[in-house]
Design the sequence.
């Protein structure tokens, strides 16, 4: 059974640029959620999608956005990158909201 | 304000030295409490989900328990491969899902 796949694994971007990260959930999982992880703040919830609808959103600025496609794959976009956006971005999928999250290995974003 | 606090922040054990990690919470309505372990550079790996006070779950050297205010992750006779960061987070009841995270406990088990 394939796990959650996140691409790319590593990314280096310049301040002011934008970036798109991709997450392919476990087959059959309709809920996809995104998280930012930094040494100082730990894991922080970004947003959750279920059946192409954003169901919940964390306390992040509007520069952070996402979407989910009909096949449950999800993308996260960060515009106008700042140095503080450097982090490990994790995606998790679950069969339904709030139960049994399976995480991907993450995308390590470095903003220079 | 909904809050999750994990303690200690870091813990060093000798191989075979049993101990416990704590996850205390103040939330409006708990739906589920999750324990995960995370190795450096990897995504968190699921360990346990607990839903109600009094519930206990075990897996190999790990045992998780839940009360109305806290959860413990007991590690019996740990081995070096148990070294990782252990994360606790909660999902809350309500119209929309909300997740509240602890900052983790970094466990190091020395041989």
Sequence:
């Amino acid at each position: 059974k394939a796990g959650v796949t996140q691409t790319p694994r590593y990314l280096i971007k310049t301040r002011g640029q934008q970036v798109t990260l991709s997450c392919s959930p476990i087959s059959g999982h309709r809920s996809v959620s995104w998280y930012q992880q930094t040494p100082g703040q730990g894991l922080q919830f970004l947003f959750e999608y279920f059946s192409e609808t954003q169901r919940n959103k964390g306390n992040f600025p509007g520069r952070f956005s996402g979407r989910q496609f009909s096949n449950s794959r999800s993308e996260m976009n960060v515009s106008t990158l700042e140095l503080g956006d450097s982090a490990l971005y994790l995606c998790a999928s679950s069969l339904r909201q709030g139960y049994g999250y399976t995480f991907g290995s993450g995308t390590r974003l470095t903003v220079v | 304000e909904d809050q999750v606090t994990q303690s200690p922040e870091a813990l060093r054990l000798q191989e075979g030295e049993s101990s416990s990690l704590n996850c205390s919470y103040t939330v409006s309505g708990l739906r589920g409490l999750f324990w995960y372990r995370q190795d450096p550079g990897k995504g968190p790996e699921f360990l346990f989900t607990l839903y109600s006070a009094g519930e206990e779950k075990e897996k190999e050297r790990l045992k998780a328990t839940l009360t109305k205010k806290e959860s413990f992750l007991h590690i019996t006779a740990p081995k070096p491969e148990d070294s990782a960061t252990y994360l606790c987070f909660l999902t809350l009841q309500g119209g929309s899902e909300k997740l509240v995270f602890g900052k983790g406990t970094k466990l190091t088990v020395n041989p």
